[in-house]
């Protein structure tokens, strides 16, 4: 049986950089996933180093000053361990502690730059895609800032003419359950080829029932496509038959790899930054 895929959707060109003799320095978008705030097994030092970096207290101040937005790509909170029946108050205390830590961390970032917060599979949001934003009462201090976006998963936005599309990883994790490889950026490219970000929904991936539209259709090919909470950092470039060029970014869990990524808005290059800690070694 022959199968015909729609192929990547049409794509707007990336804005050309200024042709002046001294063009302005590039801006960046910071991507990080799997912070797992409140996880007792996670090392808190890399998280604090990340907060210090994006707020300009650590590292190259010139580069940090050009970060135009930060996106937290799901799994903001660590999973709360199950407790014996009848001890649900202890579980509630652990959940509240994780939320307080998340609120403090995100408030530090929001005080310095625009911030988008996406939910993920371990966060206190609905399971079915598209996941709805964090409720305002869960992050009371963070949401006081007008530059904070409590966004959905999947999430799309545009920055200086560069379009971004991303998920917290459930769509790619579920696709790989049915194939015999672990090529995650290949699976990401395939979802663009198929024109659908969640091809296994709702069969094996929970999704809301939509009657008159499909929110997972890719009607315009993004310039940057990122997926969070993956085993390791992988970056690739997908080129379509009509000149489409999409930067594919498989983001690892920060709690496991201490790695965030800066995306250059001029040439779509990626610059990983690792906040390794040797304390206790």
What would you say this structure looks like, in words?
The chain is α/β, with parallel strands linked by helices and 281 residues long. The protein is built from 6 helices and 11 strands. The protein has helices spanning 44-54, 61-64, 88-110, 170-175, 184-194, 254-257; strands at residues 28-32, 67-73, 115-118, 148-150, 155-159, 162-167, 224-230, 234-239, 245-252, 259-264, 270-274. Strands 4-3-2-1-10-11 form a 6-stranded mixed β-sheet. A 5-stranded mixed β-sheet has the order 5-6-7-9-8. β5 and β6 (162-167) form a beta hairpin. The longest helix has 23 residues, at 88-110. The chain is globular, with a radius of gyration of 19 Å. The mean pLDDT is 90.
**Overall geometry:** globular
Measured between the Cα atoms of the first and last residue, the distance is 57 Å
Largest sheet: 6 strands, mixed
The helix tally amounts to 6
